[in-house]
Write a structure and sequence with these properties.
Blueprint lengths: L2 H15 L6 H7 L4 H17 L4 E6 L4 E6 L8 H14 L4 H12 L4 H16 L11 H12 L2 E8 L5 E14 L2 E8 L8 E4 L3 E10 L2 H6 L2 H5 L10 E9 L3 H7 L3 E6 L3 E9 H9 L5 E5 L1 H17 L3
Antiparallel strand pairs: 1-2, 3-4, 3-7, 4-5, 5-6, 8-10, 8-11, 9-10
Pfam families: WCX, WYL
InterPro entries: CBASS_pafABC_assoc_protein, WCX_dom, WYL_dom
Length: 321
């Protein structure tokens, strides 16, 4: 076997392993050989896969007129339906601007077969065509990537942040995580120089710019804070005071309540309602509870119940003729 043929076959096999799709005529033209030579190379690779008892299969797709390697024994890659589900979630959240969504779709499709690629586009094409970017219309992937690196390296950062009233503030932060909730990505961080039991939340799209300072976050800060656990108590990304509460839910709201407040327990089960205990941060929970109308009633503690009463009174005043 000539050196040229060996090199050509190694290159061909390398491309197939990477998930590339090989068009016979294009490959032949690029390497100045006949299409028949490429066919022989393909057959040699098939024989090699068979001899080593590989689960991978070299497939010819007649629709696309290409060869590709089907890695049937590799379960650590996303399959077709997993990719579709993931893309449906990304499209449904409207977390990214349209250009970034299209980039994510393109990246996910690279490791799929031509047929699977067609199925994905068929499944989401209407949603892509009608996709509306979030109002802030700000690309976020690069910033999220850089923030994540600062978090992983436990570095202190400085941000210029635009609040919801339009005023701009500079903050020195000790970031611990970023998460997504209700249309937005949030940076979770402690503010340097301020004593808080819990971190603050900053919408990533409102960060005008940030820089990494030459200063490390204390090890004990990152160890004592559990992002996953805190999410159980958060509603609508408002923190406040962590409380244990008792609420009365109409049956029509029970499932919604259970999904919204993961850290809950059943106290009483009636035919028309249920009473739950739960742990929540008060600010976010008040906002959410008010949006549920008469389907939920806060029973305890009394000070939280009073907050709800006060807000309802304010709302009532607005709608007085």
């Amino acid at each position: 076997m000539s050196t040229n043929k060996i090199n050509r076959m190694l290159l061909l096999f390398h491309k197939l392993i990477k998930g590339e799709h090989i068009h016979k005529a294009d490959f032949a033209r690029t390497h100045d050989v006949s299409e028949r030579s490429v066919e022989r190379d393909i057959e040699d690779i098939r024989i090699f896969l068979s001899e080593i008892h590989s689960n991978d299969k070299l497939i010819f797709d007649k629709l696309e007129n290409v060869y590709y390697l089907l890695t049937t024994g590799n379960n650590d890659k996303l399959n077709n339906i997993e990719s579709i589900v993931l893309l449906k979630i990304i499209l449904g959240t409207r977390a990214l601007v349209k250009k970034e969504v299209e980039f994510v779709i393109k990246s996910l499709r690279l490791n799929l077969t031509p047929q699977d690629r067609k199925e994905i586009i068929h499944s989401i094409q209407d949603e892509i065509n009608n996709y509306i970017s979030p109002v802030h219309n700000k690309p976020l992937l690069d910033m999220l990537n850089n923030l994540n690196k600062a978090i992983m390296n436990k570095m202190v950062i400085k941000i210029d942040y635009v609040k919801d009233n339009g005023t701009e503030h500079e903050r020195i932060l000790m970031p611990v995580a970023f998460i997504f909730s209700d249309f937005y990505f949030y940076l979770i961080a402690f503010i340097e120089g301020k004593e808080y039991k819990y971190p603050a939340f900053f919408r990533v799209d409102r960060i005008k710019k940030f820089s990494v300072l030459n200063k490390k976050i204390a090890e004990d800060l990152s160890k004592k804070y559990d992002v996953g656990k805190m999410r159980y108590y958060l509603q609508l990304m408002y923190a406040g005071e962590l409380l244990t509460i008792k609420v009365k839910c109409q049956n029509s709201l029970v499932t919604t309540f259970q999904n919204m407040v993961p850290d809950h327990w059943l106290i009483k089960d009636d035919s028309n309602f249920k009473i739950f205990g739960a742990k929540i941060f008060d600010k976010g929970f008040v906002h959410w509870a008010l949006s549920q109308g008469a389907a939920i009633e806060i029973l305890e503690p009394e000070n939280l119940r009073q907050k709800i009463k006060d807000e309802i009174k304010k709302m009532s005043e607005i709608y007085k003729d």
